[in-house]
Automatic annotation (TrEMBL):
It holds the Pfam family Sarcoglycan_1. One of its GO terms (cellular component) is sarcolemma. This is Delta-sarcoglycan. It comes from the Eukaryota. Keywords: Cell membrane, Cytoplasm, Cytoskeleton, Disulfide bond, Glycoprotein, Membrane, Signal-anchor, Transmembrane, Transmembrane helix.
Length: 150
């Protein structure tokens, strides 16, 4: 693995590494803050046990999964304008493993016990809706409307 120059002053050079960069049996160990000027390629990146992994960028942080032909399969991008994920499938689970939300090109599934729509306009469906149960909040009116045909 090739690492691009990191911004720090090298205080000690030995057969074990340079400064805060150490060569270990498991790979390279970098302690402290570092700046990478080009993409970083690694099999695994992890923090010390019990410590958070902190990534910071002035533009965005991108994680790309590619196949053997370097074709993009999955992408995760966080930036100043928001969060984007690209892939064949997206899934969110609770800490207990229960499915909360999933989406693919064919279907979106909300697995929570209850779906609440908070917008002032309620929910708008362009096609048919099928449900075994419809109810309003306690002591609130339930309204079903259909827009006038043009």
């Amino acid at each position: 693995m090739s690492l691009v120059s990191s911004v720090y002053t090298v205080q000690s050079v030995s057969q074990d590494g340079m400064g805060k960069l150490r060569i270990t049996e498991k790979g390279l160990k970098l302690e402290g803050a570092s700046e990478f000027l080009e993409p970083l390629y690694a099999k695994e990146i992890q923090s010390k046990p019990g410590r958070p992994l902190f990534l910071q960028s002035s533009r965005n942080v991108s994680v790309n999964i590619v196949n053997s032909k370097n074709q993009l399969l999955t992408q995760l991008v966080t930036g100043s304008s928001g969060f984007k994920a690209k892939g064949k499938f997206f899934e969110v689970k609770s800490t207990s493993g229960k499915l909360l939300f999933s989406a693919d090109e064919q279907e979106v599934v909300v697995g929570a016990e209850r779906l609440r729509v908070m917008g002032a306009e309620g929910a708008v469906f362009s096609k048919s809706v099928e449900t075994p149960h419809v109810r309003a909040e306690p002591f609130k009116e339930l309204r079903l409307e259909s827009p006038p045909r043009s």
